[in-house]
Amino acid sequence: MSPWPTALAGRIDEHHIDSALLRDNPLKDPSRRPLWVYTPPGYDAEPERRYPVTYLLLGYTGTLANWRNHIAYRRPVPELVDEIFARGEAPPMILVFVDAWTTYGGSQFVDSAGTGRYHSYLCEEIVPWVDAHYRSLAGRDHRALAGKSSGGFGAAVTAMFRPDLFGAFATHSGDSLSEAQYIPHFLMAARHLRAYDGDILRWWDDFRSRVAFTQEEDLRLLELLGVSACFSPAPDGTPQLPFDPRTGALRPDIWQRWLDRDPVRMVPRYADALRAQRAIWIDAGTRDEWFLDLGAQAFRDALAEAGVDDSVIHFELFDGGHHAVEYRMPPALAWLAQRIAPA
Amino acid sequence: MSPWPTALAGRIDEHHIDSALLRDNPLKDPSRRPLWVYTPPGYDAEPERRYPVTYLLLGYTGTLANWRNHIAYRRPVPELVDEIFARGEAPPMILVFVDAWTTYGGSQFVDSAGTGRYHSYLCEEIVPWVDAHYRSLAGRDHRALAGKSSGGFGAAVTAMFRPDLFGAFATHSGDSLSEAQYIPHFLMAARHLRAYDGDILRWWDDFRSRVAFTQEEDLRLLELLGVSACFSPAPDGTPQLPFDPRTGALRPDIWQRWLDRDPVRMVPRYADALRAQRAIWIDAGTRDEWFLDLGAQAFRDALAEAGVDDSVIHFELFDGGHHAVEYRMPPALAWLAQRIAPA
Amino acid sequence: MSPWPTALAGRIDEHHIDSALLRDNPLKDPSRRPLWVYTPPGYDAEPERRYPVTYLLLGYTGTLANWRNHIAYRRPVPELVDEIFARGEAPPMILVFVDAWTTYGGSQFVDSAGTGRYHSYLCEEIVPWVDAHYRSLAGRDHRALAGKSSGGFGAAVTAMFRPDLFGAFATHSGDSLSEAQYIPHFLMAARHLRAYDGDILRWWDDFRSRVAFTQEEDLRLLELLGVSACFSPAPDGTPQLPFDPRTGALRPDIWQRWLDRDPVRMVPRYADALRAQRAIWIDAGTRDEWFLDLGAQAFRDALAEAGVDDSVIHFELFDGGHHAVEYRMPPALAWLAQRIAPA
Amino acid sequence: MSPWPTALAGRIDEHHIDSALLRDNPLKDPSRRPLWVYTPPGYDAEPERRYPVTYLLLGYTGTLANWRNHIAYRRPVPELVDEIFARGEAPPMILVFVDAWTTYGGSQFVDSAGTGRYHSYLCEEIVPWVDAHYRSLAGRDHRALAGKSSGGFGAAVTAMFRPDLFGAFATHSGDSLSEAQYIPHFLMAARHLRAYDGDILRWWDDFRSRVAFTQEEDLRLLELLGVSACFSPAPDGTPQLPFDPRTGALRPDIWQRWLDRDPVRMVPRYADALRAQRAIWIDAGTRDEWFLDLGAQAFRDALAEAGVDDSVIHFELFDGGHHAVEYRMPPALAWLAQRIAPA
Predict the structure, then answer these.
(1) Which terminus of chain C is more solvent-facing, meaning fewer CB atoms within 10 Å of its CB: N or C?
(2) For residue D2, is pLDDT > 90?
(3) Tens of pLDDT, residues B136-188
(4) In this structure, are residues D162 and C233 in contact, taking their beta carbons and an 8 Å threshold?
(5) Chains contacting C with at least 3 CB pairs below 8 Å?
């Protein structure tokens, strides 16, 4: 394996989209957003051919640049997937790399008074734009979503919200089972916030004034602040924590808004959308630091309960944690490609 | 400080009580129970004098022998308290060391179809026995409870249940705020139970067949099994876990039975009993492994909400964890003695 | 299993010995020392019978009281051994519980200008006293040593120093392979000592002024100070650390004095004494926090190199750490009894 | 701060160099190597101006692509330095990004029979090439080295070896004080290698056959194998570990070869070279996982001992560990620029 970046057999086009829906977003984040589109090897040589498309969503704090990060003895997802297509091991597919970063580190791919209309941006702006500019197979049977962590969450809930647009998804270590994912973090956060008189906005001011992530609690507090902005903003957009920052005790009304976004609890409400999926990939590491292995199991159990057919599901718990598991994506993308490619 | 056990100025009498209430307990644990009574220096020299009494309750898995365990450079609680009395730094007091051990490691000092009638044993058998055999001040104003961890829980809830019997208590790192104390452990337990097909009774069989506590999960699983026996037994006494052992997800109906035993949530229902207390000591370590620092804060906040006067409360979070904090008890016992001693 | 202490089939006599050798010891520790002697079931009924003897040495910070500490679902060593003898599963044996505690927590069972003459106290005062007061088999073939951690070290080196007195030993998680055991601790200690300007005596003053072991570094620093007093005192007895407290870098001359006490490095010098042993038990946990599993392996390899016969050695690495492994002693004591009992 | 990569005010040129010295290297690694050169803002506008140069060396497993890795809320070193120059906060300087990756993850920037002639490649090929192709100030007074971890080591030892070429260096969390840096890792490695019968080459075969870094010991074993190839190869180039893989015990002769490469121990031998440096920056995090904070202190103390003037040294221990501390480099580069820029 070469230690240096290698040329792709396919191609990544780097675009920018001026989003009307994100204009005047509450955090004043840029409405001109980067978007990358990968076309597989052969795309230019077969000018009549149309391709299935998978939209790739990033985890919390992720931006498009992350897809090119290099770790020794590992290779970035685009290089690995490209190699799969180059070898003909999966039907060729267009990949769309979506960026939904916000000042708080993410949008959870939902519409929110706290962050902006990132769900609509994805479904109503990016998808039509891709179909207009690329030779995609422009139907839900040939359109999938995939992502890790918050990106896996985004993949799952977007498919639930819009089964008319998406017919398959892969969620890797995806947010799920809120009590498992979040409550231990609320408790740790309550302790950390003692140094800030229980006021997370005082931490936020501190965080922005210094080098990020030099305090061990930074990532945890950032995520809780950001998800509060996504899931439980006040009417004026202010993030509201679902726990008492003095004790970690749940605030039932706000917590309920988080539970309403828990994929496990959403399954019954979106059972039709889920039964309409052609392919669902779920995996997580058995030692996931957010207990998303338990979340994956609970989500999978809920799908069974809702009558989703076993034949469309790939479920797997692997030995590992939450980090450095991007290598799980390429095989899932190949699996999706086989299921959303035209017969 | 002598490294070896030192003679007490007072005296510990070791008794056994044949409990009628514990006869035929569901776990077939002994109904003949050890009981120790400490009389302070001067007790024998003043044959007319009567003394206030504090009942000391043990933490989970505790038995009376623990009170004599020696750790280097530390001294057991009885020696430390005895020294306080010997120096005249607190009014002399009788101490009663209660043993409520069960096969599962504890009783939480409640009456339960899963373990036995340990609350009644304490209130209806031990207290009268002590008053009959010792020169106690036999009124609630001069009777207190104290304990650490499950013993602190027992102290708090026994005072709530029986304000006619007890007028003061100290809870050190006491069980409190159930979501903080337990949910992280449910999640870890769900992972551990994968090796036992999700069946905690299979773990229990394994645990009893080998040297105890040689597996890191032993203490956690023991406690969850035992508290299930105490708080949420089936009608036939079988312990029922408040979580799905496959995912850690809460089982709302069983979990509610645990919440009903959460001191924080009990406060409003027992507000009268709490307002009637003459002294309440609450402390916990800021790094408590069961997040009982958060529980202590929540309990203290609930007392304020219920109108318990600040003047009867000592509240303190100290730098430390859950273990090896027995040195917190002697000053609390001295503080209690000052408040329950006759004027 | 009863959760409460159970009566022994044999008997423990609690003595005190006035040691001439420890009088005027440099730390002004008591020269009147406790000593316990266990006689097995049947000892009184067979007044002519003589018994082999094993001397039990405690780990660092240990005092005799530790032998009676109770942990839930476990039983103290004396109870477990007594049960073995009561069942006739091993030849009956006298056990002598030695206390060599010092102000710094231990003596390593050596003679030192920093602590006192604890090696001589054991060999020249305790052994003759036991032989004079009990029906022991007063020969080296029937006399063994056993201990854990520093006690295991004491067992091994005392047998090396005095093969005329001792013919067998058991070392459980015994100090060994100094670079593995100590160097990581020197490094951590150097960091901790930043708060004390690199002066361990400033830490020592602090330690004695407050509740012991409430700072995470306490045990580590205590041990390093104490072993320095045992192994590398200045001529006036002052402990000298074998590392630069500013960087953790080794001080070669002082470190060499520690290496001279490393059982692994002592083996070639004491090969005759070791080849004369009738039984050597070595074990350690694979996750020992002092890497004594590696030390056990190195010691065992050195014995092979020195020509000690495999047939006299029991070697075992078990799944576990350094703590709460006292349950390893009873089977080793039974094994020793079989080898030092008269034919 | 923009979450996305931002355009530089200066420019990075990406080159490849065909190295004659690396041809036929023992690991058959590519002799055609990438090299990046950054020119500061204004470089093109002032065609007569010459600039000081700093050579940046990567940590273990590093490749040039790492310089562009994005972490949320952080910015890559080139962007941060570029901004310093763009703001005029330091004299403009050329930066040369050196890649010395090998199959084992690194070269330690030394010449070795186990890996290749990476020291010579840097000094005899890269430096002349840069001076020939860029308007550098081609003298040692205007040439510096900088790096983190193994890169900091490389900076320090290269300056010691070749004071004729380099007159300043910065070592961030740089390898130093071998017993602190390595011995704890030898011990952990010995444990890990039990699963490979003590044969690190069996681990290496396993490592190459699967996704890298999915086992927790991977990074540790890779580094120990690789540094053995760099520092202690057999005559045929085979890496020789400096410890017994069965026990972690040091192998004195091989270990001595590592000590000969310890910057702390090299100081006396290279005192002239060090006294000739114009600027030396040393820093490390107080919780460095390789104890390089202790190494930094020991190195700094050795410089004082060798008579290096305090005025040329910047020394700092900061709150932090070994990872994610790249933000320390830009201020150090600015500091170097001020000291190696022409007056």
Answers:
(1) C
(2) no
(3) 999 999 999 999 999 999 999 999 999 999 999 999 999 999 999 999 999 99
(4) no
(5) B, D
Helices (H), chain C: 77-86, 118-120, 127-133, 150-161, 178-192, 200-208, 218-231, 252-259, 263-266, 271-275, 292-305, 329-340
Q: What is the DSSP letter of D121?
A: I
CA angle C211–C213–C214, rounded 5-degree value: 70
Strand order in the sheet with A143-148: A11-18, A32-39, A94-97, A53-57, A143-148, A168-172, A279-285, A313-318
C69 and D CB contact within 8 Å: no
Report the residue of D179, D194, D289, D322 to disrupt the C interface, i.e. the one with the largest count of C CBs within 10 Å: D179
Of B71, B105, B214, nearest to C72 by CB-CB distance is B105
Residue B3 has pLDDT above 90, yes or no: no
Which phi and psi (to 5°) does residue C268 adopt?
-60, -40
- C203 vs C218: CA distance, rounded Å: 9
**A187 closest CB neighbour out of B250, B264, B291:** B291
Report the b/e string of B161-177 with b at 16+ CB within 10 A: bbbebbbbbbbbbbbbb
Mean pLDDT of chain D: 97
* Residue pLDDT, tens place only, D309-325: 999 999 999 999 999 99
Q: State ipTM.
A: 0.94
Please answer yes or no on whether A187 and B249 come within 8 Å at the CB atom: no
Q: Torsions phi, psi of B123, nearest 5?
A: -80, -35
Helices D218-231 and D252-259: crossing angle in degrees, nearest 10, is 80
Return the exposure string of A232-270: e unless at least 16 CB atoms fall within 10 Å of the residue's CB, then b. bbeeeeebebbbbbebbbbbeebbeebbebbbbbbbeeb
SS3 label, residue C62: coil
B327 touches chain C (CB under 8 A): yes
Compute the nearest-CA separation of B61 from chain C (Å). Answer: 6
Q: How far apart are CA D139 and CA D341, in angstroms?
A: 11
Angle (nearest 5°) at CA A221 between A217 and A223: 125
Give which of C179, C197, C217, C243 to mutate to test D binding, by max D Cβ within 10 Å.
C179
pTM of the model: 0.96
CA distance B267 to chain C (A): 32
Q: Is the pLDDT of residue B122 over 80?
A: yes
Residues within 8 A of C (CB atoms), B 202-231 only: 211-214
- Selected residues 148-177 of chain A with any CB under 8 Å from a CB in chain B: 177
Question: What tokens does C20 get?
Answer: 């001439």
Token digits of residue A38:
């990968």
Question: Of B67, B283, B268, B278, which is closest to residue B171 (Cα–Cα)?
Answer: B283
What value, to the nearest 5°, has the Cα angle with vertex A21 and ends A16 and A24? 95
Tokens of A82: 């490209």
Radius of gyration of chain D (CA): 20
pLDDT, one tens digit per residue, over C257-308 is 999 999 999 999 999 999 999 999 999 999 999 999 999 999 999 999 999 9
B11-176+263-340 is classed CATH 3.40.50.1820: yes
How far apart, in Å, are the Cα atoms of B58 and each of B140, C3, D239?
A: 21, 13, 58
pLDDT at res. C157: 98
Is A72 close to D65, i.e. CB distance below 8 A? Answer: no
What are the pLDDT digits (tens) for D132-182?
999 999 999 999 999 999 999 999 999 999 999 999 999 999 999 999 999
Q: Report the sign of the C-alpha dihedral through residues C170, C172, C175, C178, in that order.
A: positive
Q: Which residue spans of chain B are classified as CATH 3.40.50.1820?
A: 11-176+263-340
CA distance A256 to chain D (A): 29
Are B314 and B280 a contacting pair, CB within 8 Å? Answer: yes
Cβ–Cβ of D211/A66 closer than 8 Å? no
